[in-house]
């Protein structure tokens, strides 16, 4: 049924009560954590959740804990009403949208934070977590997996991701969590965290969704100028070429990486990293002998994009 009106819950206690009531009725719960500004990639995760559970909860929460002071919390796109319309358009819809204002407010908030978890201090927009007195000091670290790939240039990012997902798991109490493989490292980190901390949750990864021209779907794509958008296509095109080359027998990772870096650089992008790693451990590979994934992060103007492609040879 399309146009299903989701229940919108903002409070942690109310969310827990809903989940426990549903489970008492024998229902299973799927969970899709998002930061909003939904696109087809997010909607594909919800459709996957429908296959595994009776009910689906989607969270919409811009997590300040994964942004460092020089990152784009203040410009992260938001369209809550538009998101609700997109969720209603999915056959079967969603049962609950969990939309808390601030999951780091423990009753000592000074009231300065806005609905997007931001505070203005001396004209500068920053995360609520940088505001004195918030009281949050407990973090979840997946120590080895968080240090590679995106972790090299974003040292607090996965600490923030693992912590907020732990908080959301403890509040929503799902049976299944569905995540996109576009954030490949994030997916693997949450899988490992769930295993290591004995969460009773099955984590499912869904292949990334691409635009018609091949660009990986991302909430940040709207910030690309038309010219930057054309340049950004060098990422997916070079990844597809690398996968084809590997399947044709080129298994040396340095040669594959060099071709991709050259293609992106010649198109005007600035490569943050281009790494071929083991799909499970994310350890860098010199030669492809087992299932690998080619992960890329690159800047086009002020927009940082990530993409990846699995290579199974």
UniProtKB/TrEMBL annotation:
Pathway: Cofactor biosynthesis; (R)-pantothenate biosynthesis; (R)-pantothenate from (R)-pantoate and beta-alanine: step 1/1
GO MF, one annotated term: ATP binding
Tagged with keyword Transcription: no
Catalytic activity: (R)-pantoate + beta-alanine + ATP = (R)-pantothenate + AMP + diphosphate + H(+)
Listed Gene3D superfamilies: HUPs, Pantoate-beta-alanine ligase, C-terminal domain
Cellular compartment(s): Cytoplasm
CC per GO annotation: cytosol
Pfam family, one: Pantoate_ligase
Top EC category: ligase
Keyword terms of this UniProt record: ATP-binding, Cytoplasm, Ligase, Nucleotide-binding, Pantothenate biosynthesis
Any Gene Ontology biological process: pantothenate biosynthetic process
CDD domains according to UniProt: PanC
EC number(s) given by UniProt: 6.3.2.1
Record carries keyword Nucleotide-binding: yes
InterPro entries: Cyt_trans-like, Pantoate_ligase, Pantoate_ligase_C, Rossmann-like_a/b/a_fold
NCBIfam families assigned: cyt_tran_rel, panC
Family: Belongs to the pantothenate synthetase family.
Subunit architecture: Homodimer.
Classification via PANTHER family: CYTIDYLATE KINASE/PANTOATE-BETA-ALANINE LIGASE, PANTOATE--BETA-ALANINE LIGASE
Protein name per its UniProtKB record: Pantoate--beta-alanine ligase
Organism the protein comes from: Handroanthus impetiginosus
């Amino acid at each position: 049924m399309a146009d299903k009106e989701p229940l919108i819950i903002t409070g942690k206690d109310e969310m827990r009560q809903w989940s426990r009531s549903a489970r008492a009725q024998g229902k299973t719960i799927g969970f899709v954590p998002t930061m909003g500004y939904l696109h087809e990639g997010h909607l594909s995760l919800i459709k996957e959740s429908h296959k595994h559970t009776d009910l689906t909860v989607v969270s919409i929460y811009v997590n300040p804990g994964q942004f460092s002071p020089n990152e784009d919390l203040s410009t992260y796109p938001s369209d809550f009403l538009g998101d609700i319309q997109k969720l209603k358009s999915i056959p079967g819809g969603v049962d609950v949208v969990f939309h808390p204002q601030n999951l780091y407010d423990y009753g000592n908030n000074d009231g300065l934070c806005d609905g997007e978890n931001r505070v203005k201090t001396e004209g500068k927009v920053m995360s609520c977590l940088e505001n004195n007195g918030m009281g949050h000091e407990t973090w979840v670290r997946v120590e080895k997996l968080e240090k590679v790939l995106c972790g090299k240039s974003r040292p607090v990012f996965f600490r923030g991701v693992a912590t907020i997902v732990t908080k959301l798991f403890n509040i929503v109490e799902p049976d299944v969590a569905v995540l996109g493989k576009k954030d490949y490292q994030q997916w693997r980190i949450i899988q490992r965290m769930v295993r290591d901390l004995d969460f009773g949750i099955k984590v499912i990864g869904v292949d990334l969704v691409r635009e018609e021209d091949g660009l990986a779907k991302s909430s940040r794509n709207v910030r690309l100028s038309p010219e930057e958008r054309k340049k950004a296509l060098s990422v997916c095109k070079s990844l597809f070429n690398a996968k084809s080359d590997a399947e044709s027998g080129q298994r040396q990772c340095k040669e594959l990486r060099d071709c991709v870096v050259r293609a992106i650089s010649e198109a005007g992008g600035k490569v943050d990293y281009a790494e071929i790693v083991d799909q499970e451990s994310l350890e860098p590979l010199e030669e492809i002998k087992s299932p690998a994934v080619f992960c890329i992060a690159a800047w086009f103007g002020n927009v940082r994009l990530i993409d990846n492609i699995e290579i199974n040879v």
